[in-house]
Amino acid sequence: MILENRVTVVTGGGSGIGAAICRAFAAERARVAVTDLRPEAAEQVAGEIRAAGGQAAAWGLDVATRATVERAAEEIASRWGPVDVWVNNAGISRVVPFLECSDALWDLTLQVNLKGTFIGCQVALRQMLPRQRGVILNMSSQSGKAGNSHYAAYCASKFGIIGLTQSLAMEFAADGIRVNALCPGVVFTALWDEQHISDYGRKRAMKPEEVRPYLESKVPLGRLCTPEDVAQTAVFLASDAASYITGQAINISGGSVMN
Predict the structure, then answer these.
(1) Backbone phi, then psi, for 187, in 5-degree steps?
(2) 3-class DSSP state for residue 68?
(3) By three-state DSSP, how is residue 31 classified?
(4) Nearest of 53, 86, 232, 95 to residue 172 by alpha carbon
(5) 229: Cβ–Cβ under 8 A, 6 or more apart, which residues?
(6) Any bridge partners for residue 187, and if so which?
């Protein structure tokens, strides 16, 4: 098991991509701290992992509030030891025309996606530096590589995450700490089903049922990204097999984005 006993923190682990990452890491015998803004969602995922024989525990966590992140990190370290892998996955997005993007939506998107990643990186690094080893994975997006209409706040936050990732990779490489970003394409999680399909349909003047086939048609590999696609990439980047990879923004987009 390539991640055996490695203490791993996953933010936004209560659903979607984050939950898939938690399950994949647990399958490789990591000790997984499932954190989420919704404690009950985190506990459900942690409970599923334990029922399957894995090691997991849940924490409620607001990634944009430093005190709650620091407190959770201290509790995790007290339970299992210092963090080996920190996955900054929590995030939000809205499909909205730029001139309809309010100050409040802009601020919230940057606060959760970019500031939340900034705080998570600082908290993780303070546990990793004394041991001169560790891995940080930051969740960007294909929208962090190429801008898209109606996604201004989201794109700005995800481009920023790539810049932050590169900066930290340079600064802490000599300390044995690797920092990489994950850049998935469209992943149909509950967020898409509940909100994005209708918003994207309005953007393209499509019926909701036309959205997914249209998006699939734009992917060279002919299908959308799955949470498991992202999770398996995260496992690899966290493992010793990726020991020479840092400062990269890895596309998981089926060929949609190649830069």
Answers:
(1) -120, 120
(2) helix
(3) strand
(4) 86
(5) 184, 187, 252
(6) 225
Where would I find the H helices in 1-38?
A: 16-27
Active-site hit among 154, 200, 214, 244: 154
pLDDT values of the chain reduced to their tens digit, one per residue, 259 residues? 899 999 999 999 999 999 999 999 999 999 999 999 999 999 999 999 999 999 999 999 999 999 999 999 999 999 999 999 999 999 999 989 999 999 999 999 999 999 999 999 999 999 999 999 999 999 999 999 999 999 999 999 999 999 999 999 999 999 999 999 999 999 988 766 666 787 888 878 888 888 899 999 999 999 999 999 999 999 999 999 999 999 999 999 999 999 9
Q: What type of residue sits at position 185?
A: G
- The two tokens of residue 20 are 């898939």
**Count of residues for the chain?**
259
How many other C-beta atoms lie within 10 A of the C-beta of residue 163? 14
Reported pTM: 0.96
Does 244 participate in catalysis according to the annotation?
Answer: no
Domains of the chain: 7-187+226-245 (3.40.50.720), 188-224 (no CATH)
The alpha carbon of residue 13 and the mean position of all alpha carbons in its chain are separated, in whole angstroms, by 9
Q: Which amino acid makes up residue 10?
A: V
CA end-to-end span of the chain, whole Å?
32
Question: How is residue 251 written in tokens?
Answer: 């596309």
Q: Strand 177-184 to strand 249-252: parallel, antiparallel, or no bridges (unpaired)?
A: parallel
Q: What's 187's DSSP letter?
A: B
Burial (CB < 10 A; 0-12, 13-18, 19+), residue 245, is: middle
- Residue 240 burial class via C-beta count within 10 angstroms: exposed 0-12, middle 13-18, buried 19 and up: exposed
Q: Which residues contact 102 (CB under 8 A, 6 or more apart)?
A: none
